[in-house]
Please model this.
Amino acid sequence: MENLTFTLTKKIVTICLIMVSIGLFALVYGVVAGSGGERIAANILLNNYYFLGMGLIGLFFVAVHAIAESGWQVSVQRIGEAMSTFIPVAGVLMLLFFAFGGLHSIYDWTHPDHIDEILAKKAPYLNEPFFYIRLLIYFTVWSLLAYYIRKSSRELDSLNDIKYFHRLRKFSAIFIVVYAITSVMSSWDWLMSIDAHWFSTLYGWYVFMSMMVSGIALIIIILYLLKRMGYMTHVNNEHVHDLGKYLFGFSIFWAYLWFSQYMLIWYANIPEETIYYYDRLHEFKPIFMINIVINLAFPLLVLMTRNSKRVFWMLIPVAVIVFIGHWIDLYQLIMPGAVGGEKAGIGFLEIGLTIGYLGLFFLVVFYSLTKAPLVPKNHPFYKESMDYHTNY
Amino acid sequence: MNKYITAYYLDEEKLLDGLKQVKAKGFKIADVLSPFPVHGIDKVLGLRRSRLTRVAFIGGAIGAITGFGFQAWVFTMAYPINFGGKPFFAAPSFIPVAFETTVLFAAFSMVFAFLIASKLLPGNDPVIHDERVTDDHFLVIIDVADGSSTDEISKIEKALQEAGAEGIKYKA
Model:
């Protein structure tokens, strides 16, 4: 009989805590070594946004499949639910970070003496009180919906009443609508406003899709870790295959959006727009090129065949590399504007802080996994998921 | 002409069970005709995976090279025009068309490969073993080797009957 209760062993906690302390150490190192406030702040924003995105994609994964009434994902649904518990944690960290100096270190529009004609016209949206109000609204709504979706799913499991499934679907539908708007707006707030003079209309979807790919990659990684620990034995090749298809397909879609944004700006050649790519193509050229190679070419070529999407020894390296790749993608969104070419770099500060955040994220996710059985046995599509089989 | 025995089923579950039984007795199933895809039938029949995906890849690769190469040739050698001060070899602007030709070539190569492989091209004589298979019947075909005795034929027929076939026909 399969072990459905996840136990948080001392080993996992120790590893996670070591990772967190590496992160804290990196932060201290950054301050001591004089990396500069801007670079430290930009790194905290980067990691906080990245792992917040992982939480949101976990929730999105659950919600979108509940709406679509798909069956196969029931076997991995709990991973998505556990990931969503990081949203409030990231929210608190984000609020503390912005409140204690992060806002002024990163965003030019918060400095009254930097306000020019363009920024003055954007002031009704880009001003500090409204920024904090929006931040609070995003996190309140996300956290509440994450809580209720998770709660409905657990009640469905323990009380075995179909009304909780309908409740799950209702909250999922609300979340999809809310997230469609807030995901785009939050990316304007926290990322696009770094380069406040510049704008792009598909930026929000581009950032969302970047999060989506890395979120799916992280689901695959967590699934693999759980399988290594002896859980999730019900998840077979067919489920892994579908996650692999997601990773493959969304990688291409991410590149589609990347290219759509790049080509229009390149073709139109308007100085106020091309300045964005000028920075990235000069001071950040290696990062800019690596971004495309490992986030498009690599998954496209490696995951093209059916077998590579079905076996972990092929899928896990791709998932890990793509996960790092989209961290780099976020890096090239934030760093050129927030830090600039001379001061930015990838050193111990960047890597250590990311490890720290990863440790914190895993600690929260694994702790949440202990709170519910690993498979929702009373889910109406439980049997369908267990019998899941596809020829393609 | 080759000889064969056809047996029809009305239910996919019975068909799968029957196929397993007939296979267990050592008879080789030549083909199964079905009005819709039956889950798990590939494994029962021991079918190899379709090679259509390779055709799609080759078609797509040819399409990408053709689309990109054609534009590169047109805009640098055949008819160079200056568009908004861009270089003649403006690679980013070639990508959308190259993308479309990739999709087009991959799709067409798959359609034609499928039509050729299943002998469905215009001019091919359609092979219809049983009219009812075009409606709701599942048809199992077992080839009969040349020079088989009536004894051997009746053995196959018996095996099919035991495997729950609704009707059996021998065609010479």
